[in-house]
Amino acid sequence: MIKAGIIGATGYAGAELARLLLQREDVEIVWYGSRSYVGEDFASIYRNTSHAVNEPCKDDDMAKLAEIADVIFTATPQGFCASQVTEDILSKTKIIDLSADFRIKDVDIYEKWYKIKHATPQFIGEAVYGLPEINREKIKGARLIANPGCYPTCSFLSTYPLVKEGIIDPNTIIIDAKSGTSGAGRSAKVSSLFCEVNESMKAYGVAGHRHTPEIEEQLSYAAGKPVTISFTPHLVPMNRGILVTAYASLVKDVTTEEVKAIYDKYYQNEYFVRVLEPGLPPETRWVEGSNFADVSFKLDPRTKRVVMMGAIDNMVKGAAGQAMQNMNLLFGLPENTGLKQVPVFP
Ligand SMILES: NC(=O)C1=CN([C@@H]2O[C@H](COP(=O)(O)OP(=O)(O)OC[C@H]3O[C@@H](n4cnc5c(N)ncnc54)[C@H](OP(=O)(O)O)[C@@H]3O)[C@@H](O)[C@H]2O)C=CC1
Ligand SMILES: CC(=O)N[C@@H](CCC(=O)OP(=O)(O)O)C(=O)O
């Protein structure tokens, strides 16, 4: 039995993780961590877990949790995990951090984009970027996993094969992304209110969203050289889902069949990445509630560009599902254990 603790269980990502972990016979959730609801029944906050959970929320004491948990998930705001982790904790348990604290290798870049001082930069080097499709072997032996951001997961999976194969000029990549409102978390903010979001759409974080350096870093590894991209996220009036439409200039003449063969080369053995027929646009509704990432592309000979597209559920492949995929790897289990859900529709 894997004993798992969730700090930040009362947030959207943490509660989604609890929902996924509760379906498993081989995992026991030993800690539902919270800031605001300590002592209150978790199932009274997330009533979808009534009859499945009979536990009060606990605090966010990572050191205490490390004494009893085989794995700790931190689904907490930026800065929390970095402020808590110690060598002692890492010697007793494994940490999967859903925040951005350990995703970016250059601490100066992290501090510049997140506008907070990193409390434990000594652990950044050993943290493994938890995108299993790319870093599977490294993840298996890690103590500290940096679970990727939702936009970076979808952006990277959509563009990676063509960057890796040198088919496109990576410095011409423009990523247009849309997210459902759950991506903004559960805490009260004017920008997340019903009347602010419903029946409207807007770009935000234009030319400055903090996921930009995370996407650039991962694409730079794939390209083998520094990559600078344009990334514009949009907030759309739906609960879940991320849709990416990315554009880049082709550097050689390629056919649709050749590009499809490249996507298949990288993803045909990936359970969670579904390469659609060329030109068939991914839709968020076909991945909702699942850990799947649907990707596709269309060549545009007129502009000599390719349009790369992807869809994920921000709460699952973009957060909790990917975290559980990483946990499976850490514990030597088949990667899709507990994650074979067919997407919900309608
Ligand atoms: N939502 C999403 O789609 C995704 C989120 N993430 C990341 O996951 C993390 C959680 O996001 P999300 O669930 O959306 O956020 P929420 O705002 O919904 O939840 C935040 C959680 O952290 C707790 N918390 C708040 N402040 C503190 C603090 N100072 N110290 C400790 N715990 C605290 C909250 O406790 P309480 O409410 O009990 O006070 C709550 O459980 C973030 O780092 C986010 O960037 C990553 C990918 C996707
Ligand atoms: C719609 C919305 O607001 N989305 C969030 C992304 C949340 C997330 O996954 O980002 P991190 O894990 O990197 O914090 C945002 O743009 O900040």
UniProtKB/TrEMBL annotation:
Keyword set, alphabetical order: Amino-acid biosynthesis, Arginine biosynthesis, Cytoplasm, NADP, Oxidoreductase
SMART domains to which the protein is assigned, alphabetical: Semialdhyde_dh
Enzyme class: oxidoreductase
EC number: 1.2.1.38
MF annotations from Gene Ontology: N-acetyl-gamma-glutamyl-phosphate reductase activity
Presence of the UniProt keyword Iron-sulfur in the record: no
Residue numbers annotated as active site: 150
Catalytic activity: N-acetyl-L-glutamate 5-semialdehyde + phosphate + NADP(+) = N-acetyl-L-glutamyl 5-phosphate + NADPH + H(+)
Presence of keyword Oxidoreductase: yes
Pathway the protein acts in: Amino-acid biosynthesis; L-arginine biosynthesis; N(2)-acetyl-L-ornithine from L-glutamate: step 3/4
Domain of life: Bacteria
Domain Semialdehyde dehydrogenase NAD-binding: 3-142
NCBIfam families per UniProt: argC (TIGR01850)
Its biological purpose: Catalyzes the NADPH-dependent reduction of N-acetyl-5-glutamyl phosphate to yield N-acetyl-L-glutamate 5-semialdehyde.
Protein name: N-acetyl-gamma-glutamyl-phosphate reductase
